[in-house]
Structure formats: structure tokens, C-alpha cells
């Protein structure tokens, strides 16, 4: 039997090799929880083994984060420290690889004034704008991966007989979703990467003008920019080094035409956002703009999200994930977007990725805008897929092609 430590070591290796693909003499910037110090240290060690010149760790302590939201002065949430901005930008300038190890408690900020949460999201969004642009244009290598921690695990497995068992169950679910149990995980990822790229190739060749979604609670049309590109799995940074931005990843995605979204769409999974849960929501669009957003749960948080800035009233991503994806088949609701978005068709409120349009990586913000790409200080995915969802693609000459039938690929 493999012990947890052996599994973590394999996982760390996968994060460093496939995730950000650390190069000789490269700096590495890790964000991770103090609760998962073991994994953070293993990743740092593997990064040095891969040739990293320096590994910097930004520790997250959720207990302290909650304390701050409860006790700190109001104005703390309206500004983002300049030195934090400068630190990130300096690592970007040095071509560092960014590893984000997430393990958020979905209920961390339950009961906190949504104004404080909204203010801080706005302030940090503005403070990290340059950093986000670098990430969204794949200037540097970056990856988002997850670690199992107590509060999150208890939310996902509330009926576990003990805390430790829940943590172990969540680890197992994470390892399964990142193919760590395959005989050769690195090879398994190479194959998976090829499969997803095959789908994006087909979609790029079809070059749809419009996607039409139908499902219970959803009647939506999404136009795609003339220069849109479907992207999946691995990306390449400014130095042409491949990396995997998300692990797991099951999605094939592109950017919608900012003003070309019409109709309504209903969520099919809860959305964990800003330390709160938003659930049972329906969003209505007119010419791309969100004109109504109603949630059965977390209405305040949803409204704060939509009102973040002008761009948060529009979409920035349209992603296709079959209902039969392994994460969806596991039937585990993770209350975490990294996993739940990879179990379901989804859309994102906020900014679009520059690499989702031809030549976009080198375009100015104005050029991106004129190519239909939305810009915002936020980007939040929400899940809309189900076994009842059909999607048609409409080509320039009016030809209609079934893309999804009953939640799964039809092409
Ligand atoms: Zn996505
Ligand atoms: Zn996204």
C-alpha cells in the first residue's frame, strides 16, 4: 500500500514537472496553506531538484483571514498593499513559475458583511490587475492545484465518521482526478492532453459563429468572436515552454463575443465564491450584459460579484466539459471551482483570456476589446452543464452542427 506521504511526493513531482514545468535557474512562487505545509515543502523540494534558482512561498492561514474579516478596520478592505502588487510583478518580470495550491474552506466567510468581502475583492482585483494580465496572456507558467484540508473535506464529505477520514477521502478524490493513481501519471497526462487537444482542433476547424444552449432553465445563445480560438489542457508561456494551468482539467474553452450573449442560463452546481456559497441561480443576458441575476442562496454575494466593475456584467469564458467526465462521474460535489468546473459545462463572469483569440497574447487591451474580448478585474466560473443539456453550433453559412447532446460530446 502506498502511504499518503508517498502519494504526496508523486503529486509534488507532477505539479512541478507537468503543472509549471520548472526550468533550470527559474524562480518559483508558491501560494499554499499552512495546513498543508507538508505538500508545500515537498513541492519546493521538487522545484529545486528540477533546477529552480529560488522558491518563494506566500503562506495562507485561513484562521487569520477570517479573524481579519471579523476584527480589522473597514478601510483595510478597500486597499491592496502596493508592496504586494510590486512583489508579484517582480516575480513576473523575472519569468517565475507560479504554483497556487488551494484548499479553501467554502464557508470561511459565512456571516461576514458582504460589503467587506466585495470591497476586498475589488481592491485585490485592482492591485493584481497587471499580474492577472500576465497570467491571462500566458506570459509566465502557472498552475492551480488543490490540497485536502479539514474544513474543506468536512464540507465535501459531511457524513464521514471522523475528520481524518474526511481528509483522506478528499485526498483520494483529488488524486483520482489528477490521474495520480495511473501506473505512470506523467504519461497519463500526456495522453489526456492529446485527447483534449483533439477536441479543440475539431472545434477550431468548425469555426462556429454561435453556440445555442438548451436545457431546463436555460435558453441561451452565445456568439463567438471571428478570431476566437478553442484551447484545452496544456498552454505555452512567452518562452514557448509548455505548462498545465489547471490540474485537474477536462475543459475545452474559448472566449464569447462580449456583446453577443442573449437569453438566460441556470446554474447546476453551487458556486463557492468569496468564502460563501451561491446556489440555485439564474442569469439573464441582453446583448451580452447581465440584466438580471437571481439566486436562491447567496443573492448578496452574487450581486456583489456582478457589480464588481463594468466588465463583471459580461462573460469572459465559455467552456465545454462532458457530463461523463471522470470528475462528474465521481459524483462528488467539491464546492470548489477547480473541480466542479471540470465536471460541467461552464461560463465565466468577467475577463476573457487573451490567448483565446488569434494573436491575442500580443494585443493591447484596446485591441483585445475590439476583438470582442471582455476585460474586468474579476473572472469567476460558474457551472451550467447537466445530462439534459443540448448545444448546437451554427457556422457562418447557417449550417447547424450538434456539439453536445444530453450533456455529452456529439462531435
Ligand atoms: Zn473554465
Ligand atoms: Zn475560468
Overview of this structure, please?
It is globular and about 55 Å long. 34% of the residues lie in helices and 26% in strands. A hairpin with a 2-residue loop joins strand 19 and strand 20. The chain folds into 2 domains: 4-177, Thermophilic metalloprotease-like (3-Layer(aba) Sandwich), CATH 3.40.1830; 207-230 and 250-409, no CATH class. It is α+β, with helices and mostly antiparallel strands. The termini are far apart. The chain has helices spanning 4-19, 37-49, 62-71, 82-93, 114-127, 129-136, 150-156, 163-177, 185-206, 299-306, 326-329, 337-340, 365-370, and strands spanning 27-33, 54-60, 97-102, 142-146, 210-215, 218-223, 231-232, 234-236, 242-244, 252-254, 261-266, 271-273, 276-286, 289-297, 315-320, 346-350, 379-383, 390-394, 400-405, 408-409. The protein has 13 helices and 20 strands. The strands form 4 sheets. Strands 5, 6, 11, 12, 13, 14, 18, 19 and 20 form a 9-stranded antiparallel sheet that branches. A 5-stranded antiparallel sheet has the order 7-10-15-16-17, covered by helices on one side. A 4-stranded parallel sheet has the order 2-1-3-4.
Bound molecules: zinc ion
Quote the average pLDDT.
95
Strand content: 25-35%
| Overall structural domain count | 2
What is the global morphology?
globular
Task: Please mark out the parts with pLDDT under 50 across 5 or more consecutive residues, or reply none.
Answer: none
Task: Indicate the structural class.
Answer: alpha+beta
Q: For the CA atoms, what is the radius of gyration?
A: 20 Å
The percent of residues in helical segments reads 25-40%
The rounded distance between the terminal residues' Cα atoms is 41 Å
The total strand number stands at 20
By DSSP (H or I, 4+ residues per run), the number of helices equals 13
Largest sheet, in brief, is: 9 strands, antiparallel
Amino acid at each position: 500500500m502506498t502511504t499518503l506521504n508517498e502519494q504526496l511526493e508523486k503529486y509534488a513531482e507532477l505539479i512541478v514537472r507537468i503543472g509549471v514545468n520548472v526550468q533550470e535557474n527559474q524562480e518559483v512562487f508558491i501560494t499554499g496553506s499552512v495546513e498543508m505545509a507538508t505538500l508545500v515543502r515537498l513541492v519546493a523540494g521538487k522545484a529545486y531538484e528540477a533546477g529552480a534558482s529560488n522558491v518563494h512561498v506566500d503562506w495562507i492561514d485561513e484562521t487569520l483571514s477570517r479573524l481579519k474579516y471579523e476584527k480589522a478596520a473597514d478601510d483595510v478592505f478597500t486597499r491592496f498593499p502596493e508592496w504586494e502588487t510590486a512583489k508579484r510583478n517582480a516575480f513576473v518580470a523575472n519569468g517565475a513559475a507560479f504554483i497556487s495550491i488551494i484548499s479553501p474552506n467554502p464557508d470561511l466567510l459565512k456571516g461576514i458583511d458582504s460589503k467587506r468581502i466585495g470591497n476586498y475583492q475589488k481592491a485585490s482585483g485592482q492591485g493584481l490587475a497587471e499580474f492577472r494580465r500576465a497570467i491571462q496572456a500566458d506570459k509566465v507558467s502557472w498552475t492551480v492545484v488543490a490540497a485536502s484540508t479539514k474544513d474543506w473535506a468536512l464540507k465535501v464529505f459531511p457524513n464521514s465518521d471522523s475528520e481524518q477520514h474526511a481528509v483522506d477521502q478528499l485526498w483520494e478524490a483529488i488524486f483520482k482526478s489528477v490521474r495520480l493513481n495511473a501506473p505512470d501519471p506523467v504519461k497519463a497526462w500526456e495522453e489526456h492532453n492529446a485527447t483534449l487537444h483533439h477536441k479543440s482542433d475539431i472545434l477550431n476547424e468548425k469555426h462556429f459563429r454561435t453556440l445555442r444552449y438548451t436545457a431546463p432553465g436555460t435558453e441561451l445563445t452565445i456568439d463567438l468572436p471571428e478570431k476566437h480560438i478553442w484551447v484545452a489542457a496544456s498552454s505555452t508561456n512567452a518562452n514557448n515552454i509548455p505548462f498545465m494551468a489547471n490540474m485537474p482539467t477536462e475543459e475545452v474553452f474559448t472566449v464569447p463575443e462580449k456583446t453577443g450573449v442573449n437569453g438566460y442560463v441556470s446554474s447546476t452546481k453551487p458556486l463557492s465564491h468569496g468564502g460563501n456559497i451561491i446556489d440555485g441561480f439564474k442569469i439573464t443576458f441582453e446583448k451580452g450584459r447581465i440584466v438580471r441575476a437571481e439566486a436562491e442562496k447567496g443573492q448578496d454575494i452574487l450581486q456583489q460579484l456582478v457589480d464588481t466593475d463594468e466588465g463583471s456584467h459580461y462573460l469572459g469564458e465559455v467552456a465545454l466539459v462532458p457530463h461523463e467526465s471522470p470528475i462528474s462521474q465521481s459524483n462528488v460535489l467539491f464546492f470548489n471551482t477547480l473541480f466542479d468546473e471540470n465536471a460541467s459545462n461552464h461560463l465565466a463572469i468577467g475577463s476573457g483570456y487573451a490567448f483565446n483569440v488569434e494573436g491575442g497574447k500580443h494585443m493591447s487591451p484596446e485591441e483585445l476589446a475590439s476583438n470582442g474580448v471582455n476585460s474586468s478585474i474579476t473572472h469567476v466560473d460558474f457551472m451550467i452543464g447537466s445530462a439534459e443539456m443540448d448545444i448546437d453550433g451554427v457556422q457562418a453559412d447557417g449550417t447547424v452542427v450538434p456539439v453536445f447532446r444530453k450533456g455529452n460530446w456529439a462531435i
